[in-house]
Amino acid sequence: MASLPRIAPMLATPGHLPPAAADEQWAYEVKQDGQRAMAYLPGDGSLELLARSGAVITPAYPDLVALGPALGGVPAVLDGEIVALDEQGRSDFERLQSRMGLSGSPAKAARMAERVPAHLVLFDAVFLRDRSLVRLPYTERRAALEGLGLNGPRWSTPAVVVGHGEEALAMTREAGLEGLIAKRLTSVYEPGVRARTWIKIRHAHTADVIVGGWVPGRGRLGGLPGALLVGERGPGGGLRYAGSVGTGWSDAERTRLAELLGVAGIGTCPFDETPPVAGARWVLPRLVGEVRYSTRTKAGRLRHPSWHRLRPDLAPDDIG
Asked: Which of 96, 282, 291, 296 is most exposed by smallest CB count within 10 Å?
C-alpha cells in the first residue's frame, strides 16, 4: 500500500449550469447521494477505502472488497462514491446511513451488507499503473477510468454526457435524482480543493413550514438562532417535526427572527413528538417560513434545508 500516494478528493463548488455558449466544454455526471471514497488498489488483489476525512472505512464495506481481484494486477487510485440503491436504482442516503460508521464492528458490517448492499460508483482515476494522473485533463483521466472496464455487481462506471446540460438536468429531475455534477473537460484534478471547474447543481424544492423551536447559536451568535426547528401539519392536524434549518439567512434576518422568537417562547414542545435536539427552546407554532431543500427522507424530514424567507402572508392553519 505504501507505493500508492495518498490523494485527497477534489471537491465541487455549489452553483448553476454553465452558460449555454460554453455547454460543449463541460461533461455532466449524475450527482450521487452517498459517502465519498478514494479506492486504493495496489495491484495485489487488495482494496483500501478512505473517506473524505482520510479515515479508513474498508471494514464497513466488506461487500466491496471484491473490487481488488476484479481489477487484477493494475495499481490504481480511483475516486468514487459509495451509495445504497433504492428499488428504482437511485442512491438513497437514508439507506446508506445504516452502513456508515461500522468500521469498528466487522460482524455487524457483514450482517448489514446482506440487508443493505453497498455500491461503489466510480468517476475518476487519479493514479494508474506507475504514474499520477492528477495533472491530466478530465477527458484523459475519464478515458483511463473507462478503459479499466469496472462494471460489476457492486461497482460501476456510469456514462457521462458531454454538453446537453439542460437536458441532463431535466432528466435527473424527472427521474427523482439529486442533480448533476458539471466538470470542465480541460480540468485537472486538484486534490483537497473545492474548485470552480467542478460544479454541483442540486434540484431545489421548497416547502412552507411552521417554526416550533430554535437552538441558540454559539460565539458571536449567542442569543441569536443558530438553527430553527420546523414542522408541517400532520394528517390529524398536529405539528409533525420536519427538520432543523441552520443556513440561508442574513444577519439582519437572523436578528429579526430572534425578536420574533423571543416573544413567542413557551415551556413545552409544540411538536407531536419531541425531536432529539439538545438545547432546544420551544415557541408558539405561529411563525411560517419558506425553506429550500434537496430531498426528503422516508420519514418526511427535509434534507439540506436552507431558510428562504418569512411568510407573514400565511397563517399556520394555511399550511397543509
From this structure: 296
The count of other CB atoms within 10 Å of the CB of residue 124 is 23
Q: Which one of 31, 108, 200, 298 is the catalytic residue? A: 31
The answer to whether position 252 is within a domain reads yes
Q: Are 24 and 99 in the same domain?
A: yes
Spatial separation of the C-alpha atoms in residues 114 and 118, rounded to whole Å: 9
Q: 298 an active-site residue?
A: no
Closest CA to 122 of 144, 95, 103, 150: 150
- Entry pTM: 0.75
Shared domain check, 241 and 228: yes
136 shares a domain with 236 = no
- DSSP symbol at 171: H
Query: What average pLDDT does the structure give for the chain?
Result: 91
Q: What's the confidence (pLDDT) of residue 218? A: 79
pLDDT digits (tens, 9 = 90+) for 255-273: 889 999 999 999 999 999 9
